[in-house]
């Protein structure tokens, strides 16, 4: 890895000569000729009208001006070294942060936990919002990664399949259909049904499933969030169809596979193409089991 160049070669030459009292040593360290080292020191002296060294025979004695300048140059070099160490830590994921946004925690949280276990020094930040806000946050560098069930085509964004999921029937254990092994949508259709608000990808998948089966939608109670549907299920207010990973692991709820064909749902991971080679983003994407657009 290249060394951070916070001080110019003339001042590096001065620093080495002042610290070691030898033009030969400075030339060897910088892989330059001795006349070049001498010329660099003269450049500083001529430009600023000072003497950095007194020439005594073949030796050099640092001047008062040189002694006053030396600790400041040393400080700059130390800062350069610290910056280099910091950048090396970022590359090796010994430092840094990763900001992830999602429409829900169901598909991403396990990957966040696995990444955190592998790279404990990387600070992880999780933020939840709707798809539009998440994608805009990625575009404006407020998030490195975002997930959504909405498929978006954007030349600036890379899209990767994070998960493929199936719809399941979900109800309270006391529901009339709770004992079934498998269910057809026609069996569900007469029962009170909980559904997400318009614009939800889960709602869209449910509507398409009933449409493909040639059925009208059941009597609906609309809910504005996954959490509201979860609580309504617990209260026995109705039944619903949910992707398997969005079903809460509660003992008073049951899930039943569908006998009807329903299109699978997909969760996508998005990030800016121009940022794909940054160390922490690259490492997270490469850690995912499913890759591909």
From TrEMBL:
Keywords: DNA-binding, Transcription, Transcription regulation. The keyword Repeat does not apply. Pfam families: HTH_1, LysR_substrate. Residues 11-63 form the HTH lysR-type domain. The keyword DNA-binding applies. It comes from the Bacteria. Coiled coil: none annotated. Belongs to the LysR transcriptional regulatory family. This is LysR family transcriptional regulator. It comes from Alcaligenes endophyticus.
